[in-house]
Amino acid sequence: MSDLDRAIEQLRACRLIPESQVRELCYKARELLIEEGNVVSVDAPVTICGDIHGQFHDLMELFRVGGDVPDTNYLFMGDFVDRGFYSLESFLLLLCLKVRYPDRITLIRGNHESRQITTVYGFYDECIRKYGSANVWRYCCEVFDYLALGAIVLGASSELEPTGPPIVNETQSSMPLDDDELETEVLNSRGEVTMSTYRPRNRSSSDSSDTSRNISPPRDISAAPGQTAGAPLRAGAPGTGASSDGNGSATTTRTGAVLCVHGGLSPLIDSVDKIRLIDRKQEVPHEGAMCDLLWSDPDEIEGWGLSPRGAGFLFGGDIVKQFNHLNGLSLVARAHQLVMEGYKEMFDGGIVTVWSAPNYCYRCGNVAAILELGEDTSNGGTIARSNGEYGRSNGVLGSNAATTVVSPGRRYRVFEAAAQDTRGMPAKKPVADYFL
Amino acid sequence: MALDLQPPDSSKRVKVYELRDNDWFDRGTGFCTGQMLDEGPQIYVQSEDEPNRVLLKTQISKDDGYQKQQETLIVWTERNGTDMALSFQEADGCAVIWDFVNSAQQQLLSLAPAVGCLPRDVADDALSDDLESYQSIVLPAPNLANLGEIEQIVRAASMTQAGRDALSKFIIRDEYIAKLVPLVETAEDLESLADLHCLCNIMKSLILLNDNTIIETVVADQIILGVVGALEYDPEFPTHKANHRQYLADQTRYKEVVPIKDPLIRRKIRSTWRLQYLKDVVLARILDDPTFSVLNSLIFFNQMEIVNHIQSNAQFLRELFSVFDPRNADAKRKDDAVQFLQQCAAIAKNLQAPSRAQLFANFISHGLFAVIAFAVKHPNPAMRTTGIDILVALLDHDPVMMRGYMLKAVNEKKTPLTDTLIDLLHAETDLGVKTQLADAIKILLDPQIPLQDPLARAGPDYFKIRSSNLLSDAFVQQHFDESSKRLFQPLKHLANRATLNDLTFQEVTLHSHLVDILTFFVRQHLFRTRNAIHSESLAPRVAQLLTAPQKHLKLVALKFFRTLTSLQDTFYQALMTHNNTFGLLLDIVYDTMPRDNLLNSACLELFEFIKRENIKPFILHIVEKYREKLENITYVDTFQNLIIRYEQMQGYGAEADSVLFSQDDSTPRRMPLNGQRWQGVKDIDPSEEDYFNGSDEEDDWTQENRTVLAAGAPNGSSALSKPLVDYPDDDDDEDAMDIKPEDDESEEKQTDESSAENPKTPPTQTAQTPPLERLSEKRRREEDDDDDELAKLTTGPKRRNSVSSTQGSGLLNRKKPLSIGPVGSGEKGASILGSVTAGTAPKRIAINLGPANKHTTDNDSCATITPNPEESNEKENREGNEGEDEA
């Protein structure tokens, strides 16, 4: 068993590794991350996760629900540290896994992966408490500077393989017509389907907008059965042909790429390629493109708005729609905001917030979710590159008018905080000795 | 309203504190009396220094807002919501005023004829009915049989404020907690888990009543173990039992280097430790915001007293520092003493600047520097870290003072601390320590320290130091040059290396630190650093590092040149056009393209910046010299665009420049990617304008000064882009460029040559520069607050960060988000409004954000607000300030 495997084992048991090992780990991680682009390309299948915030035991629960590394590919959208009491264990474990299985796990930077923020919200203190000096904090912050700013998921399937019959009655799920394909599915932590939505397979009907998709998430999955939580049951009313295009047989369809960032969009970034022009190895700035990617939030507004957070912006549905269209994206996945249901799709499914810290701060009472995107095997496994190289030299407004972008099939696994029995009482580590 | 009340006959010496931004602000020291006036009883504090000044004048109201903490503190909340505290010199004085307040309140209460008679009560106390019913809360004497009942009463009472008040009163009066404590052991003996869970819930509820006196009771010697004993049985974790008692009962955790004899202080040390344990461990999960701040204030006041005791105890200090006497062989004791001092320093961080200054001054006069020197040379890396922690605490506190001490040592021909640190940096093998050393050297050598929090420093002293500092400018420069020479020696030796492929791990780390420091110096002190870079010819060495096989080392070197580029200074531009720097940079692009990775992006960003800012000398140089290379890079359009820019320049004569640039006005160049999108063009404020207009004869310097101001962060957080854009058609600049070149640079363009002159004439330059530098630096200091985002990022918080804070007191911590949040948003607000001048806007807008915040954060952003005590405190606090400002 290699040192790395041993370290992983130890961290899985929520026991810290010695400082010298942390240092070595961080150096290895740095060598690895320096090779990654600002936007990492990731192939489906992949499971996308949101904020973790040092809730180690819930991270373990996440792996239990979503499958273990390296069996499942993971993409974590930042905010590994702060707030929870086990930021070190959580982040170091993820980093170990990254170094051990570089192609199986992708880590991108969140706004909490910053020197300034971690001094305020707990990670710094935790390092001092657990290692006696700020050295480990420094090593970790150095790694933060190397983390990618986003990821783009390619080759996701537009259709899900049904997991099984829904356990909840049909009020929460639409019954599929023979022709329909499964677009979204929500599973609880026992793997039971609690909701599914379908879209028609035949793209034949009306000429209605090719961008409107009407997948509404269940606002509250704990809603009592009988209460129609997910109101529009079908992808658009019959005949509106959601996700269809009206250009007949000459057009091609493909699953659009999924952009994953921690916060959201930036007024300075109109194409994914622009993100590549950022020198990301720095502390998260107070403004500018890099800051926005990590700090912004979607909101029910038109255009851009001032963010109450004091960094980043608010952006509306029109912005998302345009950005997705210009970049051939079907979805922006992001984290950064607590959602009680664990995930929340907005703007006709153009953007989704994924939140993976259940019972946030040990008191918020929310559930968490992860988002699974399946692999598109219909083309014999060939990935239709829809970004990255897409439109790079001929600008973003290439002749892609004839191509329709279909959103990927999305499977949300919702889970609750780890059972109390599997962990001790969460608490910070007390100081060892004191003079004063 | 006539009260029969005898005001105290003498005045008591007291410090008045006000809670501002979650920090106890010292309003001053004075004499406190109670007074009976027509409008009612009052507490009145008259300033000690200026007898005419009234530090405090507050009406005593019957609302139960006053609390006595410990022996010498009275704490309450003013009607406008401000938290106040009086810290008495003597416990007796405190008792006298406390009695006065109490009897005044009692009489006021008895006088108030009926509930709701006073309009204010109706308005803000909808619970007055409940008040009546709860005023008589009485819990039965606890025994195992009625615990369930007690738990229910306690829970019910906790629901309302009035209930909580009444319950708190009863608990305190009846010393109820002491009655509960014995039951824990009984229940344990009976192994009655249900009862223990009950007890745990009761204890939790009582602590969360958020009453100072109750919390102080809880940590008292006879009580604490019983309380945490009950809390070990948390019904939420039925299968677990914590071991708080084991931890807290362990006497050996308390280390004593030199015994502290005062029993009161010993008790305070103990209870502070317990409070911290409660906060961090026992209650960590369940703490609500108010209880969190109560714990923090208690800890704060305790620590203040402990530190005050220590520093006023000369006998103790003498004993403490004598531990380091070379004749003393007890190594363990020395180590402990270093750790003791580090804890003092960490605690001092939370104190207010004057008391902190006093403490450090006291330590220094007893020989703290010798202790630091001892620690940083310690064979154990952990001790070295501790030593540097102390040093960094001092540097954070007052870098100017530290530099004063250092220069004094130089003046007296002693080895200055910097030399020691530099030698250590070169030799250090522990990477953590090495990083700390590099940070400390940065600050110590930093010839001009930007004001970090001018408010925190005592005014007159500060300016005295500052002015004496200015007088010794030439001396500072000389010292800086000498130290730089010493510091960058290893970098210079790279010249002798044929290849960088055999760099050892230690060398790689050292060089990346050195280049990082150099980058920092260049950014902060353009002019001072010139000598060092020129005389040691460091730029070619950094360029050499671009060829190192270690990518992160390449990145560090790249960052250096990126910084030079953003300065837009002719001297530094010349450095870059001379050493084949761009050739090496293009090599990196070639090596990494078309792969998308960090190094590649960082290179692209640099060339994009040159293109965006239209840095003429660079574009000319790059395209003329490397055209073929550029043409071969096709996977991005950056390089083709550079060639286009170049051709545009060639197509027009010098006179046509203005045409070219006015054309460009309509192109996106005027709206650079990162800089200006929202804020429009920022106006130069009038004083700045005057300044530039006023110094005609120094035009080229002024030009440079201006570019210094304008140069922002490498990644485009430059707020002042306008001067940059003006640069090409600036007449003054044309003059500067007309200076006749020296012959050996003939292939270079004019601009390069005029700048290339600078390095050739350092001696004459130093003769005339100092006054100019002072001017420019003065400007820079003024700019720092508003514009220099980067300086804020790199100096302020980062340095603060490097100091350890073992107790993580929220008092201090909660101060920080304020500086991130509102200020940040304020700036953003200012820039969006565009026309608002930078000086005043941030504050006002930050305040305006308060309510807006409230609106938008209801649902989604509760990620940032609700769950976190710190942040919601911040919000509350901001709203509190707002109210205060309006009032």
Overall pLDDT level of chain A: 81
Q: Please outline the major beta sheet of chain A.
A: 7 strands, mixed
Number of strands of chain A: 18
Distance between the termini of chain B: 27 Å
Low-confidence stretches of chain B: 113-134, 450-471, 653-887
* Strand-residue proportion of chain A: 15-25%
Largest sheet of chain B: 7 strands, antiparallel
Tell me the overall shape of chain A.
globular
Shape by Cα distribution of chain B: elongated
Quaternary status? heterodimer
Order of helices and strands of chain A: HHEEHEHEHHHEEEEEHHEEEHEEEEEE
* Count of helical stretches of chain A: 10
Low-confidence stretches of chain A: 169-173, 203-251, 383-402
Strand order of the largest sheet of chain A: 4-3-2-16-18-6-7
Structural class of chain A: alpha/beta
Domain Serine/threonine-protein phosphatase 4 regulatory subunit 3-like central (chain B): 149-648
Protein name (chain B): Serine/threonine-protein phosphatase 4 regulatory subunit 3-like central domain-containing protein
Region (Disordered) (chain B): 663-887
Keywords (chain B): Nucleus
Describe what you observe in this structure.
The complex is a heterodimer of chains A (436) and B (887). Chain A has 436 residues and is α/β, with parallel strands linked by helices. In chain A, helix 1 packs antiparallel against helix 4 (87-100) and helix 2 crosses helix 4 (87-100). Chain A has a 7-stranded mixed β-sheet with strand order 4-3-2-16-18-6-7, with helices on one face. A 6-stranded mixed β-sheet of chain A has the order 1-5-9-13-15-14, covered by helices on one side. In chain A, strands 10-12-11 form a 3-stranded mixed β-sheet. Chain A has helices at 3-12, 19-33, 56-66, 87-100, 115-121, 123-131, 135-146, 272-275, 289-295, 317-327, and strands at 39-43, 46-49, 74-76, 105-107, 150-154, 181-187, 193-199, 252-255, 257-261, 297-298, 304-306, 313-315, 329-334, 343-346, 351-354, 368-373, 403-406, 410-415. In chain A, a hairpin with a 6-residue loop joins strand 11 (304-306) and strand 12. The model of chain A is unreliable at 169-173, 203-251 and 383-402 (pLDDT under 50). By secondary structure, chain B is mostly helical. Chain B starts with 11 loop residues before the first strand and ends with a helix. Mean pLDDT of chain B is 71; it is low at 113-134, 450-471 and 653-887. The interface between A and B is large, with 88 and 116 residues.
